[in-house]
Write a sequence for this structure.
């Protein structure tokens, strides 16, 4: 049984798809903003690794871009902080969309989504420069949780929205397919110390980021049917102008709508109203003068 909706003025409302758009845009701004800032300010430093530098290595990895230097690290952290609100809202709305009383899978996916969000904050604010061990723990936890999150979202994707299911499968396939060359080139760099291997690895690493955010962006198609409403049930947001408007409506509620709100301005009516006011003032003053004259 649906919960009873309290009466009250609608202060603000918007489509649920804007939660997804906000999450997608701000998340991309975090990574791309850090990349652009780093390339302009510290290009030669962020492309350098423990074995090679420019020109053998000429494109920075994600970790070198977002965690090594100021101000690109700060740019990334500020935008990720802005992403957290839409991120939690996205996970919650997807749970509302898919929750069913006969299954625990939506609750499990919801928990995984919250866990991924928290671990994202972990590797964002504990950089590899601050504490390499904890940074890796948070990052690995995030990547491990990505598997049940992705598969769970695909399993719970509403069959009434085939476009969303199609895009989730395509992006998930590309994401997991990218892991193979990513691991290969990381081994080439770390074990065999091949010049330029880390740059190729960096491209696949950035592809994972774009695909990861893009997978959650598919919720735009899911949330189009949602409308989020802020409803004032106590009248706390209603100012004097609203109270005056309510008084006018209360006075005119017995009249037809066209008469109450659709009547035009008339000079004759204005003169009559002014005359009524003048006569009323004179009558009021006369009543107050009569007792003193009698005395």
């Amino acid at each position: 049984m649906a919960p009873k909706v309290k009466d009250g003025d609608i202060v603000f409302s918007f489509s649920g798809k804007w939660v997804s758009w906000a999450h997608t845009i701000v998340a991309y701004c975090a990574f791309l903003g850090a990349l652009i800032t780093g390339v302009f300010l510290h290009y030669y430093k962020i492309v350098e690794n423990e074995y090679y530098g420019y020109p053998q290595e000429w494109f920075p990895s994600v970790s070198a871009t977002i965690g090594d230097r100021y101000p690109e690290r700060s740019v990334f952290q500020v935008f990720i902080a802005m992403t957290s609100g839409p991120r939690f809202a996205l996970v919650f709305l997807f749970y509302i969309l898919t929750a069913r009383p006969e299954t625990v899978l939506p609750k499990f996916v919801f928990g995984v989504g919250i866990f991924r969000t928290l671990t994202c904050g972990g590797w964002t604010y504990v950089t590899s420069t601050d504490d390499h061990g904890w940074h890796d723990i948070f990052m690995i936890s995030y990547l491990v949780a990505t598997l049940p999150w992705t598969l769970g979202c695909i399993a719970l994707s509403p069959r009434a929205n085939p476009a969303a299911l199609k895009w989730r499968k395509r992006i998930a396939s590309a994401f997991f397919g990218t892991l193979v060359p990513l691991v290969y080139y990381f081994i080439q760099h770390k074990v065999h110390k091949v010049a330029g291997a880390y740059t190729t690895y960096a491209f696949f690493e950035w592809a994972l980021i774009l695909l990861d955010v893009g997978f959650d962006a598919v919720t735009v198609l899911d949330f189009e049917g949602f409308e989020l409403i802020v409803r004032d049930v106590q009248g706390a947001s209603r100012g004097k102008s609203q109270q005056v408007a309510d008084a006018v409506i209360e006075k005119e509620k017995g009249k037809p709508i066209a008469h109450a709100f659709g009547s035009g301005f008339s000079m004759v009516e204005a003169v009559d109203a002014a005359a009524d006011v003048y006569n009323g003032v004179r009558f009021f003053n006369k009543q107050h003068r009569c007792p003193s004259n009698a005395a």
